[in-house]
Design a protein that fits this description.
It is globular, with a radius of gyration of 17 Å. The protein has 5 helices and 5 strands. It has a 5-stranded mixed sheet, covered by helices on one side. It has helices at 45-62, 105-120, 136-154, 160-173, 177-198, and strands spanning 14-20, 30-36, 70-76, 83-84, 89-93. Strand 4 and strand 5 form a beta hairpin. It has one domain (3-202): Neutral Protease Domain 2 (Neutral Protease, domain 2, Orthogonal Bundle). It is an alpha/beta fold. Bound molecules: zinc ion.
Length: 211
C-alpha cells in the first residue's frame, strides 16, 4: 500500500454500522461503519446504506475483490478536502457525507456521488496505484466515471449521467463504460496475479451468483 493511503483517526466519535456479504468474500461479512462527531452519526445513515450497496456493485463490475477487510467512513469536522480515499478508512468533510431533513436533493446527490467516488478509489488508486503523480488523472477520471455509474445503477431516478455531461466536461465524457471496463479488467488481472504470488489471503475467489 502506498503510504499516502494510510490513515489513523483519533477523536471522540460515535458510529453506526452495517454488514455486507461481498461476492468475492462470500464466507464472511464485511463490516461497514460510519463514524461522526457525537450526535451526528445518524445523519450518515443514507451514506452508510449506499456504501453497502456500492461495494458489491464494484466487485462485480471490476471482477476483483475489495482489498480491505472492513470499511470505515469517517465524517471529520473542519476536514479541509472534500474526502480522502485512505484504504478502508475514508475520511470526509461532514457536508460530503452527512445529511438531515434540511438537505436538498441536489446536496443529497452530491453526497451520493462523493461516497461512490471514494469507494471507487479502493480499486482505482488503492488496489492499483499510479507509479507517479503525473498519472493522477487515471485515478480521478476512473473514480469520477464510476461515481456516476454506481449512483445511476442504484438510484436510477436521479438520472445522474445527464448531470455528468454538464459537470465533468468533454474529457471525462470520452471515457466510455467500455473503455473503463477494458482497462480496469486488464489492470486488475495484473493486480490479481501479483496478489496471488505475494498475499494469498486476499486473493479473490470466484464470485457467488449474486448479492
Ligand atoms: Zn478522487
Amino acid at each position: 500500500m502506498s503510504t499516502y493511503l494510510v490513515a489513523w483517526v483519533i477523536g471522540e466519535l460515535e458510529s453506526i454500522q452495517k454488514t455486507v456479504r461481498l461476492p468475492y468474500s462470500p464466507d464472511r461479512e464485511t463490516v461497514v461503519s460510519l463514524y461522526a462527531a457525537p450526535g451526528q452519526a445518524s445523519k450518515g445513515q443514507f451514506s452508510l446504506d449506499l456504501a453497502v450497496r456500492v461495494l458489491p456493485l464494484y466487485e462485480k463490475f471490476f471482477e476483483c475483490g475489495y482489498i480491505g477487510d472492513k470499511m470505515d467512513l469517517v465524517a471529520i469536522p473542519d476536514f479541509a478536502a472534500g474526502a480522502m480515499e485512505n484504504v478502508a478508512c475514508v475520511t470526509f468533510r461532514e457536508s460530503a457525507i452527512l445529511i438531515d431533513e434540511s438537505t436538498t436533493t441536489m446536496e443529497k446527490k452530491y453526497v451520493a456521488l462523493v461516497v461512490a467516488h471514494e469507494l471507487a478509489h479502493m480499486w482505482f488508486g488503492d488496489a492499483v496505484t499510479m507509479v507517479w503523480w503525473n498519472a493522477l488523472f487515471l485515478n480521478e477520471a476512473f473514480a469520477t466515471y464510476m461515481e456516476y455509474y454506481a449512483v445511476d445503477k442504484l438510484i436510477p431516478e436521479w438520472n445522474v449521467f445527464t448531470e455528468m455531461l454538464q459537470r465533468e466536461g468533454g474529457a471525462l465524457c470520452s471515457l466510455t463504460r467500455w473503455t473503463a471496463l477494458t482497462l480496469s479488467r486488464s489492470m486488475f488481472a495484473t493486480h490479481r496475479r501479483s496478489m496471488t504470488s505475494s498475499t494469498p489471503s486476499v486473493t479473490p475467489k470466484a464470485p457467488v451468483s449474486s448479492v
